[in-house]
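B., you asked whether I could sanity-check this one before it goes into the benchmark set. Here's the sequence:
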Amino acid sequence: MAAETKNRYSDAELDEFRVLINEKIKKAKEQLELIESAYKNDSNNGTDDTSPTFKAFDEGSEVMSKETASQLAIRQ
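And here's what the prediction gave me:
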């Protein structure tokens, strides 16, 4: 068995990786903020969540959308 030598990444390569990772973190944080905003429903002043309505399908779809958003937020 030949001993494998491990080469060190150059400083330029490490800087490139750092930039890529920071960009991905920034995008992930932006997506997380968007998902949290959609989940909290804080972007409007409507009465959708307080008025007594009988929109079972719309409410079910909204709950499913919030559940999906929360699952995505957990992964972030």
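One thing to flag: The chain has two helices and no strands. Otherwise nothing jumped out at me.
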